[in-house]
Amino acid sequence: MDDFSNYCLPNPTLDAVTAEYATLEQELDIALASPNPSDDALRAVVGKWDQIRRGLESWSNLVEIRFNQETHDPDFKAAQDYRDEIAPKLTELNVRIQKKLVETPLRPRLEEIFGAHAFKLWEVQNSTFDPCIHDDLVQESKLVSRYNELTASAKVEFQGEEYNLSSISKFEEHADREVRYGAARAVWQWFAANRVELDQIYGDLVTLRHGVAQKLGFDSFVELAYRRMSRTDYGSEDVARYREEVREHVVPLCREIHRTQEDTLNLEDLMFWDEGLFDSAGNPTPQGSYEKQIELAQQMFNDMNADLGKFFQLMCEKNLLDLKIRPWKAGGGFCSSLPSEELPFIFANFNGSKGDVEVFTHEMGHAFQCYSSFDGAALLEHVWPTYEACEIHSMSLEFLTWPHMELFFGDAAERFRRIHLLTSLLFLPYGVAVDHFQHAIFAEPEATPERRHAIWQEMERLYLPDTNYGDMPHVSSGGRWQQKRHIYMSPFYYIDYTLAQCCALQFWVRSERDFATAMQDYVDLCKRGGTMPFSGLVDSAGLKNPFKPGSLKEVVQQAREYLKL
């Protein structure tokens, strides 16, 4: 692939893929039935399966990327619908292969060749699928797409201009309080106007996901969701204890931060629309044009690490960055990949705020890890680790780029660093609130929309006790959660960010003491990819596991010292 903008892949036909898998199964059965197959024979047949998967995943990811780039394009929407229709069947074909590999008496031999972690992942993943849920999975994908289309199509009028939900977010950091208030009110008026549909979509998703869990033999969707997230080394009890650690050690610190914020901004009461501003002069914003910022990013990565610099140059040359905001483009940011090309892709929505730099360095962390792990990966499972481990690479790179922030913010760089640390700490209670909310929702799958909004308010009282919405419509009655895409689109994928943030803050501390060592530790962690579960990767990098008592206490103390709190 020379240029992603011209890259295309044909839609696979289900008949052709099914036939290809039938041949593969025969070859695998022969290899596994052999009395003493060679390692090369086993590598060959499993490798053939892996190549098929890489091609299909590249196509699937490309379809999703194109749809997110232009959600109104009928061809991209049709391709997305086709992908969603055949995805459960492709999953079924993969599960058949995985079961053979997991259940064969040759498994110990295979684990020596490919590592034991992949087999644990397959065991967990196999329990999340059965042909009986085929239609449910198709319907789930359609509901997720509907939420994505609805939020991407939002048009918010403010100060005589029309914005989408991504572009208007820049006003969250505006120095003028009335502007912040007006922009926030306009956003939440849109959510209020669409509350009925948003409630309906989520209600349908909860009912559907709970039903799927029951069909698969689980008591609730929570257990199924953990397995969908490929969590092999911890469970909901561990996460609950971690949430308590956040309540005990981080929530009090965040309350202090809010009081400091009030003093800094000279406010009598810190309101919801004030929370994004940390300086009365306005939060720092990146300098220069988009093109200049890309040029500076290249300089930064060159100085940080030779491999990182070469990688970013490659991303630019092949147009593997879609960072500019535009109408009909889906919100948010993400990193995807094209396994058959061994390349990642970055999607974001630059709006002129400091968040552009944060999101960009975050997604670059994902991309660099992905690219680093492709080299020598015998299986797709070795490329991406599980999600909470993935987020260590992204969040840590945000902190590792700190010494170069003068390039983007000039003499406001130190203000940026301070604000970045403050927002990283403030994020932790919000992140665990989103997670706890989802646990509570699926404990009451038949709850009314009103009850779901009340549950969110319960979470705010636990983790976000200072938040004051005033007369802000919708959000003041418990609707804030509807802005969080992960709740609709990627259930239970949010605690991962908070777990990774705990690790990333440790990388920050390490880099403050010895940047070269911290950077090398980071690069080495990226190269390990998905060869280990979360806890193994954390241990391999010499980081303190967030599930262990005291991990947050130490991080909070170090942050207090830096912030002089």
From TrEMBL:
<keyword id="KW-0862">Zinc</keyword>
<dbReference type="InterPro" id="IPR011976">
    <property type="entry name" value="Pept_M3B_oligopep-rel"/>
</dbReference>
<keyword id="KW-0645">Protease</keyword>
<comment type="similarity">
    <text>Belongs to the peptidase M3 family.</text>
</comment>
<dbReference type="Pfam" id="PF01432">
    <property type="entry name" value="Peptidase_M3"/>
</dbReference>
<dbReference type="InterPro" id="IPR045090">
    <property type="entry name" value="Pept_M3A_M3B"/>
</dbReference>
<keyword id="KW-0378">Hydrolase</keyword>
<dbReference type="GO" id="GO:0006518">
    <property type="term" value="P:peptide metabolic process"/>
</dbReference>
<protein>
    <submittedName>
        <fullName>Probable oligoendopeptidase</fullName>
    </submittedName>
</protein>
<dbReference type="GO" id="GO:0004222">
    <property type="term" value="F:metalloendopeptidase activity"/>
</dbReference>
<dbReference type="GO" id="GO:0006508">
    <property type="term" value="P:proteolysis"/>
</dbReference>
<dbReference type="InterPro" id="IPR001567">
    <property type="entry name" value="Pept_M3A_M3B_dom"/>
</dbReference>
<keyword id="KW-0482">Metalloprotease</keyword>
<feature type="domain" description="Peptidase M3A/M3B catalytic">
    <location>
        <begin position="173"/>
        <end position="553"/>
    </location>
</feature>
<keyword id="KW-0479">Metal-binding</keyword>
<dbReference type="GO" id="GO:0046872">
    <property type="term" value="F:metal ion binding"/>
</dbReference>
